[in-house]
Amino acid sequence: AEILTYANLRVLITLNLVYDTIAESDTQKLAYTLLADGGTLILTNPSGLGETTGGKTVKFTQWNPFAPENEHVGEALYAKLHGYLDSGAIQTNRVEVLPGGLGGIVAGLERLQEGKVSGAKLVVRPQETA
Length: 130
Description:
The protein has helices at residues 6-12, 25-34, 71-87, 105-113; strands spanning 15-20, 35-43, 57-60, 94-97, 120-123. By secondary structure, the protein is an alpha/beta fold. Strand 4, helix 4 and strand 5 (120-123) form a beta-alpha-beta unit.
């Protein structure tokens, strides 16, 4: 099987808009690679990419419902949040509690590195440490 690199991945797919919610160095590079010329990359952490090329735009966003200019949005959202959760309009992240408290961290990290975790937050309960 061919090893999938950023270069050959770019041949398979390009995107006009990428919203990188992890926005760490590796995900920023991957997102930028997949970005079409003239496309926009939105990051939730400051960019570490340096100079952009191909008419690509990189933007940093950090929305805060408690900022004075967003107060009305935050109040409206939080007033309706329970209803959104009850109706399923907004769903919480799926979580997986790792057994063994702090002792479960290493195995959890190994699973992450091996790509064996998808669509879930790994949770450790320190009070369960033996």
